[in-house]
Structure formats: C-alpha cells, structure tokens
Amino acid sequence: MNFPVTLHKRWHGRRYNSYNRLLKDTFAARVYKIGLRLDFTCPNRDGTVAVGGCIYCNNSSHTPQNYQPRTSVTEQLERGAAAIQRRHRADKFIAYFQSYTNTYGSVSKLEKLYREALDFRGVVGLSVATRPDCLPEDTLDLLTDLSHHTYLWLELGLESMQDRTLRWVNRGHGLKEFVETVGRCKKRGLRVCTHLILGFPGESSAEILATTSLLNRLEIDGLKLHNLHVIKNTVLEKLYAAGGFTLSSQKEYVALVVDFLERLAPEIVVHRLTGETYRAITVAPEWSINKIGVHNAIYKELEERDSWQGRFYPNETEVPSPNTPVAREED
Ligand code: SF4
Hints:
7-stranded parallel sheet, two-stranded antiparallel sheet, binds iron/sulfur cluster
C-alpha cells in the first residue's frame, strides 16, 4: 500500500481529510450541525444583483422539512438538538446558518442572530453560508470578533470557477469577486469553506480539475463538493425537462470526485463529498438521493486506486487529465 502512514494516522484511516474527523479531534466528541432557515433573502433574488436567483436554487432543498421558516434561532435549535439527541445521543452542535444568504442584513441583525445561536446549550461553533459579494468590512469585523470566541467557519459559494458557467446559472458574481473576498477573509484569519458543484454542462473534466490548483493556491481551509442535481420548481428543472443537458451518472461523479481529491492539498478539510437532498423535491439524478451509497462508492474507488487526497499535490497540474466524462450540453 502506498497510502502514507502519517496521513493514515492523522486521518484515522480515512483516505481524505474529513470534517467529521476534524470535529471529533477538536472537541473529543461527536458534533452535529443543525441547519437553520431564517428570515434572510438573497441579493440574487431580490433584485439587488439579479432576480430569480441561481437557476438551480430552491432553498427547501437545504433544510429538512420539519424545520419551519419564521421560527426563532432558539426554536429551530431546540427542535434540531432534540432530533439529534434521540438519534445519536450527541450533545454538541454547530449552528449552521444555511438557507439563503446569511450575511445579507445589518450587522446588528446578524449579531443578534449569531449570538442567540451561541447562547444555546451545546452549541460549540457557527457555520455561516453566504455569497462572496455579501461580506462588507463591518460584517467581516463581526465575524472576526466572533471567531476569536467560538469555532467559526465561513462558507462561500463559488460553484464553478468558469465565468461562463456562473453566467449560465445566473449566479450574479464571477470568479474575480470570489478570489478577492477569500483574500480579505484569509487576511483576518477566518476559516473559509468553498462550495463547488461538479458536473455543469459544457465543463470538461480538465477544467473542473483545474479548480484544485485555484483552491490550493488560495489556501482555502475547507471544501464542500456537490453533484449537479435538479430540484423541483427551479429554472434548471425546466431546462432539464426540455432536454437541454444531461447529468453525470454515479460512476462518472465518483471517478471525478476521486480525481479531484487526488489533486487537492491534504490540508484542505473536506466537509462534503456529495449533495444531500430529499426524494420529495428531487427530479434527477435518482442516485444522488442515496447519499450513503455515493459515499461508499467514493471510499471504494479510493481503495481500489490505493489513492488519497493530495496524492498528486503539489504537482497536480503536471498530472495528465483523466478522461472522466461529465454532463454535457445537448446540440
Ligand atoms: S446565491 Fe444561494 S440563496 Fe441566492 S439564489 Fe443562489 S443558491 Fe439561492
């Protein structure tokens, strides 16, 4: 076996730098995230940047259906914590400001919400999901201050490093804004986790894998990978129904994720390997509903290749791109 002993030990046998393992090591306990859906909107929906939002966006896909919008942080945490305690007997939590753009509001509103979460029993940290164009300096001041007292991750959506894809999905920002914002966050010592979607139509595997060089160079702290999936009541659903593009098969996605991990710096913490969605709102692909099945297939592929995260790092650009087929636009 070529898997380096040092990494095997550090990652407790996992072949990638997993967020769950990091949480266990950091808190000496199992820690679970509780997704929150609060009274936020998004500048890409309300007309500030654009209207309609990203073509794949339906925020019901983010939070379990038993969470009721318009309930307080405390009520949502109570419900989430009770469910986790019943299922896993865990009592440490990360409050995850998940749906919509969770820095899109006045600093006083944000501070009140974040501090309410931190006051909840068992909450040991915060994750705040947002867009690169929604982090003015006063918001960063607040997040920096909080990060000195709690375990804080800032989650920044990039989704694709190809500006043509960002335009196609009506993302409302480009790669430049993302790079600039990451620089400002890193200067303040904030932990930044990037969201990426793999499998956009028209992106070659070489283009997708080139994203690893960008993330390595930016010294991103964390990464969430997601397959492109189609959710009901989105623009993407209409395009898909019209036959505008095809989606990756599970086999293709798994191969691409492992190719991606092999080129990713081992220091980058992997928060997620595939998307999480619910049957009731998913149009396609069917395979992505079985998250555990996709995870198992990724672990198996890593084993079969006897490979690991960072295997080709830091020479990731010199590795010939494997011919991983991905979804493509139809003629
Ligand atoms: S930035 Fe996020 S919340 Fe806003 S439209 Fe896009 S996916 Fe939806």
